[in-house]
Amino acid sequence: MLVFFVCTTFVVFFGQIVIAQSNYNLSTQGKQNVQLIVSSDFVVTMNEAQPVITNGAIAIKDGKIVAVDTQDKIMASYRAKRTLPGKDMVLMPGLVNGHSHSAMVLFRGLADDLALEDWLQNYIFPAEAKFVDENFVRVGEQLACWEMIRGGTTTFVDMYFKSDVAAKVVDECGLRAIITGSSIDFPSPGFKGWDDAFAASVDFVKRWKDKNPRITPAIAPHAPYTVSPEHLVQAIRAARHYDVPLTIHLAETQTEVRDIQQRYNATPVQHLENLGFLDPRVFAAHVVWPNSSEIALLAKRGVGVIHNPDSNLKLASGFAPIPAMLKAGIKIGLGTDGAASNNVLDMWNAIRLTALIHKGTTLDPTAVPAKTVLRMATLGGAEALGLSDKIGAIKVGLQADLIQVHLKEPHLLPLYDVISHLVYAADAQDVDTVIVNGQVLMHKREMLTVDLERIRREASSIAENIKAEFRPSN
Asked: What is the domain count for the chain?
């Protein structure tokens, strides 16, 4: 006769300490199996309960974070198929680029030192009409993904054309994105005007909603000065009907403010409010020229704002009142805009500029502290995009969208405050590893999901065609 003994162990916790919402398992039954463990000298969580863990680590399973704690506790409780050590590194949430026109990397440097209206009407719109097709978007999107992965961006918003092509590239490269076709009232690449462009945008939303967990389709009327009131209403109704985000350029220049005032006897933000357009699913790019009542209105309506300091400066659009918007409680993220007006998709530039320019414009060195700016580039951006339930922080239950940043280069020595270094000293070349949804896209600066030589070759070929044929207006 065989006798089986079943032993049950009861563990009672007194004074349990939880670090960064850790689900650290103290069971004596053995280690839990996970897919990936990532450790670093510092884990910057963007979690107020435990913002920085020294000698920290996280465990990842099924693309999500299942534990955050010290390295000793994680290694004692979890067994991983793969472990990424992090000596001389900081582990942090991936950067969130809240506004870009990704394929426009192929127009990088095509037209510089121009006012926005001149740049758009006489250079960019003609170039797009002549060169933007599916191949242009495919190659441009691949080049943009390469650049963003190298710089530690894990989520981006793409407001451009040929959305199906862009989505396919994002699916292949492994990034997370909100993708939308820009709808405008006059002809654009592949479209005669608003009706067919908007119809294509809605069709894309219907086909891609819930199709891929890393890709969110959205609606994108270009701007109040390029889209009629009736079409703006049509756009927000569609976004509400299909329950998707909506993004728009808003109050970017003084010229726009004057134009909307003359047409509709209202400022741009008030114009959208009058149309019943503003709600929490909306996130607006730039918002350089809101007045104080408009700032209060954006906060009241829960509208997200994406600050693009590089392009605002390069196009001389002005200085967005970020300190006032933060004080009002507006959800604010950061963006690069397109590389045709930036000229890089480098979020570290946006981080540093945001920390510096608002100190200068307000004459207050405390106006936008380093911690606030880093939050805008991660969790704040996720909140503005409506994605904070998925990304933006290192927290149990969120998607494992993470980066490791090296701290051993001379411009990062000595180290007193890791957040200070990330904002004021680090740059894109310091990013060592990029992980999205638990998948490693880059490790030790080696790209793992894109064909670099093919992208370089095809981008150069398109650029040669542009050089040979494009003659901008004077």
From this structure: 2
Compute CA distances 225 → 99, 111, 256, 473, whole Å.
18, 22, 7, 22
Same domain? 68 vs 180: no
Residue stretches of the annotated binding site for substrate: 128, 222, 252, 337
452 part of a folded domain: no
Q: How far apart are the first and last CA of the chain?
A: 97
Residue 109 sits in the same domain as residue 69: no
- Cβ contact 22:67 at 8 Å: yes
Cα 369 → chain centroid:
20
Range of 85's domain? 1-93+408-443
pLDDT at residue 117, rounded to an integer? 84
Same domain, 5 and 145: no
CA distance 215 to 122: 33
Overall pTM surpassing 0.85 (yes/no): yes
Residues of the chain with pLDDT under 50: 1-28, 474
Amino acid 473: pLDDT? 52
Select from 72, 97, 175, 93 the least CA-distant residue to 404: 93
Same domain flag for 319 and 275: yes
Q: Are residues 220 and 204 in the same domain?
A: yes
Specify the DSSP element, H or E, that contains 181. Answer: strand 176-183
Phi, psi of 104 (to 5 degrees): -70, 0
Q: Is residue 113 within 8 Å of residue 56, measured between CB atoms? A: no
Q: Do 178 and 196 belong together in one domain?
A: yes
For 239-296, how does the pLDDT look when each residue is reduced to its tens digit (9 = 90+)? 999 999 999 999 999 999 999 999 999 999 999 999 999 999 999 999 999 999 999 9
Of 258, 353, 284, 372, which Cα lies nearest the Cα of 312? 353
Strands (E), 210-334: 215-217, 220-221, 246-250, 282-286, 304-307, 332-334
Hunting for tokens 């009327």 — which residue is that?
221
Tokens of 89: 């590194």
Contact 317, 286 (CB under 8 A): yes
pLDDT in tens, 398-446: 999 999 999 999 999 999 999 999 999 999 999 999 999 999 999 999 9
Residue numbering of the annotated binding site: 99, 101, 128, 222, 249, 252, 337
- In the chain, what's the furthest Cα-to-Cα distance? 97
In the beta sheet, which residues pair with residue 42?
54, 90
Q: Is 467 within a domain?
A: no
Q: Which residues are annotated as a binding site for Zn(2+)?
A: 99, 101, 249, 337
Evaluate whether residue 359 is within a structural domain: yes
